[in-house]
Amino acid sequence: IKKHPVISNVKATCLPPSFSCLKNGRFSERNLQRNIFNYVTDNFALAQYDAIFLASFDEFALIASRLRGRLFVLAHGNISGMSNRLKRFAMRRVDKLASVVVFNEYIKAGALKYGLRNVCVEPHGFGPTHIISDTERSAVLDAFQHGLSDALSTRRLRLVFAPSGAKYGDSFISRLGCNRSFLNLLDSAGIIFVTKGAKTAPCKGNFINIDRHLSEMEFAALFTAANLIVINYPQSFDYKVSALMFESFCNEKPCLITRIPSFLVYSDHFTYDPYFNEEDEFVLKLQEYASKTWSPEGCMYIWVVSSCEVNSPLLHLHSICVD
């Protein structure tokens, strides 16, 4: 916050340590968030603020709390799953309490479809690029597989990184581990495939499966060393935005992504076709990449610059920050 040119005068306040305890279970987590909202309500004169912005929220925790005011709430994944009547009820209550901020027109259309009205679009921004020294990166890579750093630099092997693995319960990576065409391609094309969290995937030869949490440095090392990023989210990943895709944009890494509505929204950002359906099409895409049928070198992405809607209440929030 201190480095931001607009909000450098923001005062940060830490919550009591009791609120930092992780709770097990959805109910406990919601109750904790409700208590945090109530703490903020009881300890800050919110009526003096022109706007109150929540960078994330649970809809049930918010409507059960006493937090009120000119609220702007950022709906990361809150629109997904609104076919559920209980969630739809909670989000419609939120819609009456706050301006619901979403990342694109597709998510807004989903919100309107389920009865929300107070919705505005603010496009997803870009974060900082990953910065890691060559020495640090080499040490991290060699910890995953002995000689991996040297193999990438001197033997000209290519690293393909699939950070999401089976994050959303999708079996795509596990099926790849049993796909003979894919495994043969790794060997013949000199590709090291690194994934994270695929519970039933093998870990042998050029296929490395990491089944533990990655530190920030470990993730940065793999991401910056990668020649290609794979983002394999299932159809159930709806009305959401992938931070990994925007990390690829920021770090100018080519990526291959599943052909789902949440990703197709960003097709205009690509100068090549990054989409695939099942593992056979992915293997074909990877084969084309390996044989340089399509090359991600040079201009990979089109920087589509968008501003928030003309009538969006966020324009007022921008003016508050600038003033």
Could you walk me through the main structural features you see in this protein, from its secondary elements to its overall organization?
- The chain is of the alpha/beta class.
- The protein is 38% helix and 12% strand.
- The chain contains 13 helices and 10 strands.
- The chain has a 6-stranded parallel sheet, with helices on both faces. Strands 1-2-3-4 form a 4-stranded parallel sheet.
Overall geometry comes to globular
- Please bin the fraction of helical residues: 25-40%
User: What is the number of E strands?
Assistant: 10
Beta-strand share of residues: 5-15%
Calculate the terminal CA-CA distance, rounded to whole Å: 17 Å
Profile the largest sheet.
6 strands, parallel
Strand order of the largest sheet: 7-6-5-8-9-10
* Rounded radius of gyration (Å): 22 Å
Find the structural class using helix and strand composition: alpha/beta
Helical stretch tally: 13
**Strand/helix succession:** HEHEHEHEHHEHHEEHEHEHEHH
Low-confidence parts: 305-311, 313-323
Mean pLDDT: 84
Outline of the structure:
The protein is α/β, with parallel strands linked by helices and 323 residues long.
Features:
single chain; 323 residues; alpha/beta; 6-stranded parallel sheet; 4-stranded parallel sheet; 13 helices; disordered C terminus
Describe the secondary-structure layout.
Layout: H1 26-43, E1 52-54, H2 59-64, E2 71-74, H3 85-97, E3 98-102, H4 105-113, E4 119-121, H5 134-144, H6 148-154, E5 158-162, H7 172-176, H8 180-189, E6 191-196, E7 207-210, H9 216-225, E8 228-231, H10 243-250, E9 255-258, H11 261-264, E10 275-276, H12 279-290, H13 314-322
Parallel strand pairs: 1-2, 2-3, 3-4, 5-6, 5-8, 6-7, 8-9, 9-10
